[in-house]
Write a structure and sequence with these properties.
heterodimer; A: 372 residues; alpha+beta; Butyryl-Coa Dehydrogenase, subunit A, domain 1; Butyryl-CoA Dehydrogenase, subunit A, domain 2; Butyryl-CoA Dehydrogenase, subunit A, domain 3; 3 domains; seven-stranded mixed sheet; 9 strands; 53% helix; B: 408 residues; four-stranded mixed sheet; four-stranded antiparallel sheet; 10 strands
Chain lengths: 372, 408
């Protein structure tokens, strides 16, 4: 992997722009307000995010109305969103669905849906996992049956990002040619969507039942290899979100350790606390290396993308959770309260660990790839 | 010191070729070649002219090596025993030594004719090295030294030693230290090998019994020893926190994978194999992240905005190397009960053949990684205080005379 990890001035400008936007639009009060709603995001903020700074279409090519940027820019944006715990359909629509359309869909589906995503007009969700809770493609059991000019789908999809608010669902199902991507409009016949009460209320998930639902196949042939890369790229972006959150936890913990006095001294002067912070720093820095390597591999569509992503997901999931958990511990009783934001990060950390397969599952994938 | 002369890379290459016209590594031994290399100012190009350098940026040193390698199958690299002299001795002599010392000592440090060692640590002063007890007492034009040093690399080969000693016990610890260059052949210097848990002696103990040092071998002023020492200590940490393998899946990862592939499948239950496989994978990940973090640190340095990624290497590497070889010996299973290399006490280290023997050896040797060059606990203090800005521990010994501080 010939990665050079170079961030340019433009990347730093993008970071500053996104941070300023999120500081204004996604402060703690805004996060708490949105997480308590059923929709889970503020449509006005979503529109501004799309229109003012072009984030919804960040990786969408310019010909489809996007910003035409790559995975290094996406990594910067995801880090900032993870840091701010932004409540928005970003991962599902702007990352997962956009990637699925770019890598698996035919030109007409791309032409129709990508501009809608880039403009912030449509929520598009990939319906991938099934109730068994497996995230690998071998776990997909849903069948697509030909019917008339199109297809018909039956069965249940689980843990669909923003599935309850999506305008369009891109359903992964098995047909005669192998795995494919099928478009289902939210209002189509036989679609039942149920919002799942989530551990992490800053990210909404739904179960989607399909009963003889009409669907359009977008793309042709067996899409297994393409979907594998779509999943990998989405996970790469998710690891950037994880390190953004982990870095924020480290800052919260150290800031508190500097000001909280017990026994007449700041608690950060005690090695028990100081060393916990230092260990957090080490694992957050290693996690950044992992997430950046995965995103740079995605940016270059590097052949080592799958390996880099498995490593990043395995490491960043644990690093984020540990940082969030230690942040609570360092905050003591305050950290256990509803009022303090530490729990929001703990819940986000665990949900990002479990989404798309947990750390152990990705270690196993890595082991398979490396030949361990 | 930051003002460097500029010279084009091509001119430096020309000068290197001019050196090769006079002496060629393929036909000249290391000492002779390096003597002439020094005379040409190509020893360490960032040193001033007349002292083995050309006053160029330290980044230019690689150009010289590269040009030599282009024209010669043999490259006379820094001799292993000279690493301390070159890395720590030469800079300190250049900065604090008298004109006579510089002329006398620098060429022989570079050529490898004279080995240097560094004597800071003591049995009662490890992490708290500034609390050391070895005494130097002024006697006319000389200093008389008594005490004991420990963990002294290459002391048994050394002609010169960098010695940190207490010259004033009545002031707080940092203020009472002075820095000397001591002739290791002086009467009263007794060097003994210090055998470690591998049976090897990489290090020595050095005893001083009324050793006399001429006053002009005091570097810096009396009482300024700590300031002089700090420079060398920083160099040591940079040298140790190298950042793992340069190649993906190389170094410790490759060795661990080789062990894993050679495991006794019949001796391990499926459950054991699954657990061990996960541990091996974790080690692979950690070693890979060391490599990537070093790469990230280099990129940030090049971009001019170095962040904390460069500071975590020493601590991370020490801990990861220990995990790696704890896992390695568990992969060996019952074979880990034997230790074919044996424990015959001997001076020197390494020379272990075969990955299995290496794994057993490194299982033991890696315990030192989190102790040498700053313990992991001290590194966590440094990261906590200097990188994260957390407040220091109250120092009970800071403002009182050294002689009143309790010590073990």
């Amino acid at each position: 992997m010939a990665l050079d990890f170079s961030f340019t001035d433009e990347h730093e400008e993008l970071r500053a722009t996104v941070r300023a936007f999120l500081t204004a639009k996604s402060d703690e009060a805004a996060v708490r307000a949105q997480m308590a709603t059923e929709r889970g995001y503020d449509p006005a903020v979503w529109t501004q995010l799309a229109e003012q700074i072009g984030l919804a279409g960040l990786i969408v090519p310019e010909e489809h109305g996007g910003a035409g940027m790559g995975y290094v820019e996406l990594l910067v944006a995801m880090e900032e969103m993870g840091r701010a715990l932004l409540c928005a359909p970003y991962l599902g629509t702007a990352v997962f669905a956009a990637n699925a359309l770019l890598d698996c869909a035919d030109a007409s589906a791309q032409k129709e849906l990508l501009p809608e995503i880039a403009a912030g007009r449509a929520i598009v969700s990939v319906a991938h996992a099934e109730p068994g809770g497996r995230w690998d493609l071998a776990g997909i059991a849903m069948r697509a049956r030909a019917k008339g000019d199109g297809f018909e789908l039956d069965g249940t999809k689980a843990w669909v990002l923003d599935g309850h608010t999506a305008d369009v669902l891109l359903v992964v199902a098995r047909g005669d040619e192998g795995l494919g991507l099928y478009r289902v409009d939210a209002g189509a016949e036989g679609v039942t969507r149920t919002l799942v009460p989530t551990l992490d209320t800053t990210r909404k998930l739904a179960h989607v039942e399909l009963a003889a639902t009409p669907a359009t196949r977008i793309g042709s042939g067996d899409q297994t290899a393409n979907l594998e890369r779509v999943l990998a790229k989405t996970v790469a972006a998710l690891t950037a979100e994880q390190v953004g959150g982990a870095q924020r936890c480290l800052e919260m913990a150290t800031d508190y350790a500097k000001t909280r006095l017990q026994f007449g001294r700041p608690i950060g002067s005690y090695q028990a606390i100081k060393h916990k912070c230092a260990d957090m720093l080490v694992s957050v820095e290693l996690a950044k290396s992992a997430a950046y390597a995965a995103c740079f591999a995605a940016a270059e569509d590097d052949e080592e993308l799958l390996e880099a992503t498995a490593l990043a997901k395995a490491y960043c999931s644990e690093a984020y959770f540990t940082a969030a958990a230690d942040n609570i511990q360092i905050h003591g009783g305050m950290g256990f309260t509803w009022e303090h934001p530490a729990h929001l990060y703990l819940k986000r950390a665990k949900s990002t660990d479990l989404l798309f397969g947990d750390a152990a599952q990705h270690r196993e994938r890595l082991a398979d790839q490396v030949g361990i | 010191m930051s003002e460097y002369r500029t010279m084009s890379e091509e001119e430096l290459r020309e000068r290197t070729r001019a050196l090769l016209d006079v002496v060629h590594p393929e036909t000249t031994d290391s000492v002779r070649f390096r003597q002439v290399q020094y005379e040409h100012g190509l020893a360490w190009v960032h040193f001033p002219e007349g002292y083995g350098g050309l006053g160029l940026s330290p980044k230019m040193n690689v150009v010289v090596l590269d040009e030599i390698a282009k024209h010669s199958k043999v490259v006379h690299h820094d001799p292993p025993a000279s690493i301390i002299g070159i890395g720590m001795g030469a800079p300190v002599v250049l900065t604090y030594g008298s004109e006579e010392m510089k002329k006398r000592m620098l060429p022989k440090i570079f050529s490898g004719e004279e080995i240097w060692c560094q004597m800071f640590s003591e049995p009662s002063a490890g992490s708290d090295v500034a609390g050391l007890s070895t005494r130097a007492v002024r006697d006319g034009d000389e200093w008389v030294v008594n005490g004991q040093k420990v963990w002294t690399t290459v002391a048994h080969l050394a002609r010169w030693g960098m010695l940190l000693a207490r010259t004033n016990p009545d002031v707080p610890k940092h203020d009472g230290l002075s820095y000397f260059v001591v002739d290791m052949h002086s009467p009263g210097v007794d060097v003994r090998p210090l055998y470690q848990i591998t049976g090897e002696a990489e290090f020595n103990e050095v005893f001083f019994n009324d050793v006399r040092i001429p006053h002009d071998h005091l570097l810096g002023k009396e009482g300024q020893g700590w300031r002089v020492a700090i420079t060398t200590l920083m160099n040591e940490r940079v040298a140790i926190g190298g950042g793992g393998s340069k190649r993906k899946g190389g170094g410790a990862s490759a060795q661990l994978l080789e062990l894993w592939k050679g495991r006794e499948r019949d001796a391990l239950t499926p459950g054991q194999q699954a657990i061990l496989r996960d541990r091996v994978t974790r080690c692979y990940m950690e070693n890979e992240l060391l490599r990537l973090t070093a790469q990230r640190a280099r990129a940030a340095q090049k971009g001019g905005t170095p962040g904390p990624e460069g500071s975590v290497a020493k601590l991370a590497q020490a801990e990861i190397n220990k995990h790696t070889w704890e896992t390695g010996i568990d992969v060996l299973g019952a074979r880990g009960l034997s230790f074919e290399a044996g424990y015959e006490l001997r001076q020197g280290f390494g020379g272990i053949e075969g990955v299995e023997a290496l794994a057993k050896y490194l299982f033991l040797r890696s315990r030192a990684n989190s102790i040498e060059g700053g313990t992991s606990e001290i590194m966590r203090n440094i990261l906590g205080e200097r990188v994260l800005g957390l407040p220091g521990d109250p120092r009970v010994d800071k403002d009182i005379p050294w002689k009143d501080v309790p010590r073990s």
